[in-house]
Amino acid sequence: MRVDLFDFELPAERIALRPARPRDAAKMLVVEGEAPFADRIVRELPQILRPGDVLVFNDTRVIPAQLEGRRGEAKIGATLHKRIDLRRWQAFIRNAKRLKPGDIIEFAQGVTALAEERLADGSFTLAFGGDEPVEVLLERAGTMPLPPYIAGKRPTDEADRSDYQTMFAREDGAVAAPTAALHFTEGVIEALDAAGIVRETLTLHVGAGTFLPLKVDDTTDHAMHAEWGRIDAKTAARLNAARKAGGRIIAVGTTSLRLLESATGDDGVIRPFEGDTAIFITPGYRFKAIDGLMTNFHLPKSTLFMLVSALMGLERMQAVYSHAIAEDYRFYSYGDSSLLIP
After folding, report:
1. Fewest CB within 10 angstroms: 120, 133, 301, 322, which?
2. Considering the entire predicted model, what is its pTM?
């Protein structure tokens, strides 16, 4: 499909630079089938879902994966993208023309990395020096990797260390937050439990490639970056049982959705999964695992807007986004939410 079919005009003032406070006060646009849109707020979610429905959260934890350093006199920026092993990461590099394989980058606080290899997409493999775990080095020298549409408008600060982390964050490895879950609070969770709505978790370490703009004219020419994920056998079994009993599987975020779909066969059975997924969902895709999606509002011409268009239909999502813009919904990572039920 042509990428320009997924374009739309978004006023700059609609981009959220800070999250709603409290988190569950964010607006939530409920879109169910062809029913009229409903303007709600996140804390009303327990009254909207049905007993027996299952919300599936991503428990990945964002690491401070943004690094600033030097190679000689040249300033070099690195955004870690995907872990290779204990000491090596793939990284997107700013000022990459000043970096070549074999160079040493000197970051803050004595942290160094060897630029081992330039990859086909222009990123580099970085090997971190020293004996300390890379996680320790990143806590010392790194900052939270806010998306460029936020970081380009204000500096990252201490508040982002908690704001850009969900309450479910447990497994270190993401370089971008599973932002749909940023809206949840202990109060919402207690209300969900009281309403008989089930919660499950999986792990998908979100990579920065998920949010990159497409640089091709047709979706068939776009190669997704792979991300590592895991669904254990007990979780898969519970999800299958809940669906068999009539519960709806609602993915909280496109990251949860993509891993669930990667783990599900054509028979609709969710299976244990551990490994990389590069699934790219565009209109025409037949969903096998999920019955709905809670997600924020995404960038024009992004793979994520293509995904929600596959779920609800392109014309329907164009109408949804027009309504959201007209009604002053806040967009992107720190923005408001939507609940999409085909």
Report:
1. 120
2. 0.93
CA–CA dist 58, 199 (Å, integer): 11
Q: Which pLDDT does position 3 carry in this prediction?
A: 93
The strand pairing partners of 171, in sequence order, are 60
DSSP string covering 263-278, please?
A: TB-TTS-B--EEEEE-
Token pair of 15 as six digits = 């981009």
* φ, ψ of residue 245 in degrees (nearest 5): -85, 0
Residue with tokens 């783990």: 263
Residue 193 has what DSSP assignment?
H
Per-residue pLDDT of 109-143, as tens digits, reads 999 999 999 998 889 999 999 999 999 999 999 99
Q: Which two tokens stand for residue 334?
A: 């720190």
**Rounded to whole angstroms, how far apart are CA atoms 129 and 89?**
12
Domains of the chain: 3-62+163-341 (3.40.1780.10), 66-142 (2.40.10.240)
Beta carbons within 8 Å of 62's beta carbon, 6+ residues apart: 144, 145, 164, 165, 169, 174, 175, 176, 177, 206
The pLDDT of residue 212 is: 66
Tokens of 91: 């990284």
Distance CA 171, CA 166 (A): 11
Q: Is 151 helix (H, G, I), strand (E, B) or coil?
A: helix
Q: Taking the mean position of all CA atoms in its chain, how far away is CA 134?
A: 22
Which tokens go with 37? Answer: 């849109």
- Give the three-state DSSP class for 157: coil
Task: List the beta bridge partners of residue 275.
Answer: 229
Alpha-carbon distance of 115 to 102, in angstroms, equals 6
